[in-house]
Amino acid sequence: MKILMLSWEYPPRIVGGIARVVHDLSHRLIKDGHDVTVVTYRDGDMSYFEDDNGVKVYRVDNYMISPNNFIDWIMQLNFNMIAKASEIINQEGKFDVIHAHDWLVANAAKALKQSYDIPIVSTIHATEAGRNSGIHDETQRYINDTEWMLTYESTEVIVNSNYMKSELQRLFGLPYEKINVVPKGITQTNFAGYERDYEFRRQFAADNEKIILFTGRLVYEKGIQNLIAAMPKILQGYNDAKLVVAGRGGMIDELRAQVNYLGISNKVYFTGYLDHKSICKMYKCADVSVFPSTYEPFGIVALEAMLAGIPVVVSDVGGLNEIVEHGVNGMKSYAGNANSLADSILSLLYNPQLCANVVKQAKLDVKNKYNWTKIAQDTHFTYQKAICQTMAERQARQIAQEEAKKAQKAKNTENEITNLLGFKKRQAYA
Q1: Please, what is the average pLDDT of the chain?
Q2: Are 150 and 123 in contact (CB under 8 A)?
Q3: Looking at the DSSP assignment, which residues form a beta bridge with residue 6?
Q4: Which residues are CB-neighbours of 87 under 8 A, at least 6 positions away?
Q5: Which of 155, 223, 331, 343 sees the fewest Cβ atoms within 10 Å?
Q6: What are the percentages of helix, strand and coil residues in the chain, rounded to 5?
Q7: Does pTM surpass 0.70?
Q8: 131 with 213, same domain?
Q9: What is the mean pLDDT of residues 332-345?
Q10: C-alpha angle with apex 116: 113 to 119, nearest 5 degrees?
Q11: Structural domain contains residue 295
Q12: How far apart are CA 65 and CA 361, in angstroms?
């Protein structure tokens, strides 16, 4: 099967989680014998073309015109994606399916579908309404409308959790059978070769301190403000604890002010941005990993922590709520509730046996449920559904056209007979 992936990010350009998903899924599909081409954005001095272990990666520049805003920038990017994909199709032939990742490539996917009659399978990784607890301005409304358009133009839609399936049904009125739940996967060897590095660990905490780790963007929906709010109660119950915050984002100044106000600056360490290697080392150094999101469509970071062998605490929202079973493969807390969060963290800090039990089960779940082999198979099945449906629609259109031609021919014949009879009648009277 020839597959075209459209994504605005692909390694080494990593903005969020989409880049890793597209990368890992593409490579698994290649191993399964498929032909995968990725069209993405070229950042900095990246190559325009790369053969990434069988995945053909084409990168496009944006126009030199300075965009007025992010939406204009995305539109320009889509125009160049259309041009590059059209060039590839003209040289190498049509793709069997277009896989569009999120609203950022929606216009390119729609144009290619209409130009070349190729079915779209789209993955909606998150929604604008979900991220912002509603639609509040014109930019958000535009993104929301573009998300709807992409799901409308798609033959099949993929989401990563049942929570997201319900969200798309509620927001866009999509038919139940059009939405396919396929979770994100995780490479099972991500932490191969990594062990606890005590010298690295001492950069962030003393040997006697238990590291409570947060990894992610410092934005409201990730709930880091609630974790900081929970720290006084945690420290009251377990003083030898240290919160390490690994990530960057727009809330950093607000969060530092919150830490100072609570008087816990000596118990919270902001690392800033960490590269992939440092994140892997950090996971191995942590004692508890916490994901207190108020909105989370899936929760790939929780899977990473589970694979690394760290007990996790998550909010009972979205995809996190589906990944973690309380007391079995992790712990849950009420979203936005600092007291509940503190209680779940303390239960792990006080109970090494509970930690060992949930870590063991978590590793089994990650291995069995979230491996790329299974996920690629499920994705391929969705591609086949889209292709079969498109073929059926083509046949239906062809039959309808043929029936219309027959009806028109019969009508023309009838008109000819009527005209002939009229002519003969006029001749007889003459």
Answers
A1: 91
A2: no
A3: 39, 100
A4: none
A5: 343
A6: 55, 15, 30
A7: yes
A8: no
A9: 96
A10: 40
A11: yes
A12: 53
Mean pLDDT, residues 257-274 taken together: 95
Query: Which DSSP string corresponds to 382-399?
Result: HHHHHHHHHHHHHHHHHH
Q: How far is CA 90 from CA 3, 96, 116, 164, in A?
A: 15, 14, 10, 36
pLDDT at position 418, please? 73
The CATH number of residue 213's host domain is: 3.40.50.2000
- State the Cα–Cα distance between residues 212 and 246, nearest whole angstrom: 11
Number of domains within the chain? 2
**Do 48 and 119 lie in a common domain?**
yes
CA distance 143 to 183: 23
Separation of CA 373 from chain center: 18
Cα–Cα distance between 257 and 146 in angstroms, integer? 37
Kind of pairing, strands 331-333 and 2-6?
Answer: unpaired
Q: Which amino acid would we find at residue 248?
A: R
The pLDDT score that the predictor gives to residue 427 is: 64
How far is it, in rounded angstroms, from Cα 38 to Cα 58? Answer: 6
Buried-state track 235-273, b at ≥16 Cβ within 10 A, e below 16: beebeebbbbbbbbeebeeebeebbeeeebeebbbbbee
Determine the straight-line distance between the first and last CA of the chain, rounded to whole angstroms.
71
Q: What is the pLDDT of residues 217-263, one digit of tens each?
A: 899 989 999 999 999 999 999 999 999 999 888 899 999 999 999 99
pLDDT bin (cut points 50, 70, 90) of residue 275 is confident
Question: Does 223 lie in the same domain as 152?
Answer: no
Q: Which of 233, 405, 200, 219 is nearest to 295 (CA)?
A: 219
pLDDT band at 274 (very low <50, low <70, confident <90, very high): confident
Q: What is the dihedral of CA 158, 163, 165, 171, to 10 degrees?
A: -120
Cα angle: 186, vertex 192, 198; to 5 degrees: 115
- What pLDDT shows up at residue 412? 75
Q: What angle do CA 224, 265, 261 make, to 5 degrees?
A: 75
Q: What is the pLDDT of residue 293?
A: 94
- Let me know whether 39 and 154 are in one domain: yes
pLDDT score at 62: 83
Q: Which residue has the tokens 């990010």?
A: 9
Range of the domain at 118: 2-181
Question: If we measure between CA atoms, which residue out of 150, 320, 309 comes closest to residue 221?
Answer: 320
> Vertex 30, ends 26 and 31: CA angle to 5°?
120
Residues found in the chain? 430
365 and 293 assigned to the same domain:
yes
Residues 6+ apart with CB under 8 A from 373: 28
